[in-house]
């Protein structure tokens, strides 16, 4: 298999893995600690490969996540588009931040994502979520350095551009 094909399969595989990780059920007590995997993986690819991640791809991944989760169609597509837009806009700065500053930037992006989700759900008529609903972005920010280094290491081992 040539390098381009391997690179494409690795890219698609990580996105599919993120969507499937989103579906893993957790006990009720641990559910607020579940990070938003598609956002984290799209952020990684936004920073590492700007030509692959576009708003259209973020929209398609979001629609796939909507269909898998059974939520309002377009809810996650909107959230991922906003997240990828901001990440691509500030890509040149974010790439050269130290890891702790990148984690803080990821926290800000994930909190922005939660605020968008809150607005969409309130406009759809849902009640306000409990305070534990806000834990997930912090877990995502803590996991960011590990996820980034893991994906980067695997990409380097496979010698993918």
UniProtKB/TrEMBL annotation:
Belongs to the MreD family. It holds the Pfam family MreD. Keywords: Cell inner membrane, Cell membrane, Cell shape, Membrane, Transmembrane, Transmembrane helix. It is found in: Cell inner membrane; Cell membrane. Its main location: membrane. GO terms for cellular component: plasma membrane. It comes from the Bacteria. GO terms for biological process: regulation of cell shape. This is Rod shape-determining protein MreD. The keyword Transmembrane helix applies. InterPro entries: Cell_shape_determining_MreD (IPR007227), MreD_proteobac (IPR026034). Involved in formation of the rod shape of the cell. May also contribute to regulation of formation of penicillin-binding proteins. The chain crosses the membrane at residues 7-30, 53-73, 94-111, 131-151. It is a multi-pass membrane protein.
């Amino acid at each position: 298999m040539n390098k381009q094909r391997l690179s494409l399969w690795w890219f698609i595989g990580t996105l599919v893995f993120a969507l499937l990780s989103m579906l893993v059920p957790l006990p009720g007590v641990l559910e607020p600690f579940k990070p938003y995997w598609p956002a984290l993986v799209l952020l990684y690819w936004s920073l590492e490969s700007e030509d692959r991640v576009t708003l259209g791809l973020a929209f398609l991944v979001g629609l796939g996540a909507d269909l898998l989760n059974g939520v309002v169609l377009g809810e996650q597509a909107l959230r991922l588009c906003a997240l990828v837009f901001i990440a691509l806009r500030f890509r040149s700065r974010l790439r050269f931040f130290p890891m702790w500053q990148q984690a803080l930037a990821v926290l800000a992006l994930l909190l922005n994502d939660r605020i968008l989700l809150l607005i969409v759900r309130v406009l759809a008529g849902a009640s306000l979520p409990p305070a534990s609903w806000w834990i997930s972005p912090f877990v995502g920010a803590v996991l960011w350095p590990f996820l980034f280094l893991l994906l980067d290491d695997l990409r380097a081992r496979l010698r993918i551009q």
